[in-house]
Amino acid sequence: MSDCLFCKIISGEIPSKKIYEDELVYAFYDIDPQAPTHFLVVPKQHIPSAAAITEENGAIVSHIFQVIGKLAREMGFSDGFRVVSNVGEQGGQTVFHLHFHVLAGRDMTWPPG
Ligand code: AMP
């Protein structure tokens, strides 16, 4: 999608700190980290949010979680980590291209406090 920030990051038009890429997904560090390690995993296909997952496009979610697991093992998140996908404006979504935040390196117990 031509006016989508993450589509531009995937294409290289906007620079990013890439962690991993395959034919289906792209992973890169969040520009405004909320934990010592904070990265995003996004499908290369433009899907607006988790609310737009269907029978037809849903296999990408399984693939994304396999990639998250592989990166978590490689990065040594042995004490755990958090995966978040914000959906819609009230859900805190600011970039309308499906993405999964992966956060690690501090206490992630929920609810906080
Ligand atoms: P969300 O608010 O769930 O839609 O998440 C969007 C995330 O994208 C936020 O955590 C932003 O910090 C992050 N972000 C925005 N622009 C960039 C960028 N150019 N490179 C990396 N991360 C970005």
What report would you give on this structure?
- There is one protein chain.
- This protein has helices at 5-11, 59-75, and strands at 18-21, 25-29, 37-43, 82-84, 100-104.
- By secondary structure, it is an alpha+beta fold.
- It has a five-stranded antiparallel beta sheet with strand order 1-2-3-5-4, with helices on one face.
- Strand 2 (25-29) and strand 3 form a beta hairpin.
- The radius of gyration is 14 Å and the shape is globular.
- The N and C termini lie far apart (40 Å).
Read across the widest sheet, the strand sequence of neighbours is 1-2-3-5-4
- Catalogue the unreliable spans: none
- Proportion of helical residues: 10-25%
Order of helices and strands: HEEEHEE
Q: Number of helix segments?
A: 2
Structural class: alpha+beta
Rg over C-alpha atoms, rounded to the nearest angstrom: 14 Å
Shape: globular
Strand content: 15-25%
- Care to count the β-strands? 5
Ligands bound here?
adenosine monophosphate
Q: What is the averaged pLDDT score? A: 96
Q: CA-to-CA gap between the ends?
A: 40 Å
- What does the main sheet amount to? 5 strands, antiparallel
